[in-house]
Amino acid sequence: MPLNEPPADDRKFRRGKEMSRFFVSTALTLFFSKLTHRTISMMKYRPTTFQANHVIPPMNSSTKLIAPQAVALSTGLSAGFFSMVVFGTCWIFDINSVQEFTLGFKRVLSPLSERIANKVPPMEDDEATSELENELKDLFKTDK
């Protein structure tokens, strides 16, 4: 549901831009998932026929880089997945910039906030609450 209906050419360009962002983030996620799968399968210890499988394999130079590899691969996977969610949502709701997002968000939430304000009765201040408010005001008061 677009905010204001753009011309047909502009709308087609915008949708193509949103689609390309989503597909690039999908390709990034697929790349990192394939790289993660390949890295994990290369690290597996596969004993041959007459090797004991209860013996810990010797440590080579590639096992020293397990932690940085895991951090890099998990960061790539999570960034790719998060960008897929964000760009997919923006594609669905025809959002192309942060300003459009804030306008749409305000448009959706303003009736909701009015309904909540009408349902919640105003609270009555008692003596303890007013004392606490005064103490907090005094604590955070800035004298210039």
TrEMBL record:
<keyword id="KW-0472">Membrane</keyword>
<comment type="similarity">
    <text>Belongs to the AIM11 family.</text>
</comment>
<feature type="transmembrane region" description="Helical">
    <location>
        <begin position="70"/>
        <end position="93"/>
    </location>
</feature>
<keyword id="KW-1133">Transmembrane helix</keyword>
<protein>
    <recommendedName>
        <fullName>Altered inheritance of mitochondria protein 11</fullName>
    </recommendedName>
</protein>
<keyword id="KW-0812">Transmembrane</keyword>
<dbReference type="GO" id="GO:0005739">
    <property type="term" value="C:mitochondrion"/>
</dbReference>
<dbReference type="InterPro" id="IPR038814">
    <property type="entry name" value="AIM11"/>
</dbReference>
<feature type="transmembrane region" description="Helical">
    <location>
        <begin position="21"/>
        <end position="40"/>
    </location>
</feature>
<dbReference type="GO" id="GO:0016020">
    <property type="term" value="C:membrane"/>
</dbReference>
